[in-house]
């Protein structure tokens, strides 16, 4: 499901995410179980904040994290 979601976000935002592949990371939160996190490629914080601002305006959740 996470891979499918990643493809969907990329296809809806081709110009915005050009050259980015993204990845799915498996995260074990012990008491809450296993989750799959969809992340973009490592980029500058400024560029990441710009991309997130645009994605949020399209009602897509986005969070800038430190690498």
List keywords for this structure.
2 helices; 2 strands
Q: Which runs of at least 5 residues are low in confidence (pLDDT < 50)?
A: none
Order of helices and strands: HEEH
N-C termini distance: 24 Å
Number of strands: 2
Strand order of the largest sheet: 1-2
**Helix content, binned percent:** 25-40%
Strand content: 15-25%
Alpha-beta classification:
alpha+beta
**Major sheet:** 2 strands, antiparallel
Distinct helical segment count: 2
Shape: globular
Mean of pLDDT: 93
Radius of gyration: 13 Å
Structure description:
This protein has 67 residues and is of the alpha+beta class. It has 2 helices and 2 strands. It has helices at 2-12, 45-57, and strands at residues 23-28, 34-39. A two-stranded antiparallel ribbon has the order 1-2. Strand 1 (23-28) and strand 2 (34-39) form a beta hairpin. The longest helix is centred in the C-terminal third of the chain and has 13 residues, at 45-57. The chain is globular, with a radius of gyration of 13 Å.
List the helices and strands and how they pair.
Elements: H1 2-12, E1 23-28, E2 34-39, H2 45-57
Antiparallel strand pairs: 1-2
Short description:
The protein is built from 2 helices and 2 strands, in the order H-E-E-H. The chain is of the alpha+beta class and 67 residues long. Helix content is 36%, strand content 18%.
């Amino acid at each position: 499901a996470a891979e499918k979601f990643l493809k969907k976000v990329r296809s809806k935002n081709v110009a915005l995410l050009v050259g980015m592949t993204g990845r799915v990371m498996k995260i074990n939160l012990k008491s809450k179980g296993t989750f799959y996190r969809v992340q973009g490629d490592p980029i500058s914080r400024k560029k990441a904040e710009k991309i997130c601002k645009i994605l949020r305006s399209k009602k897509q959740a986005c969070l800038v994290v430190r690498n």
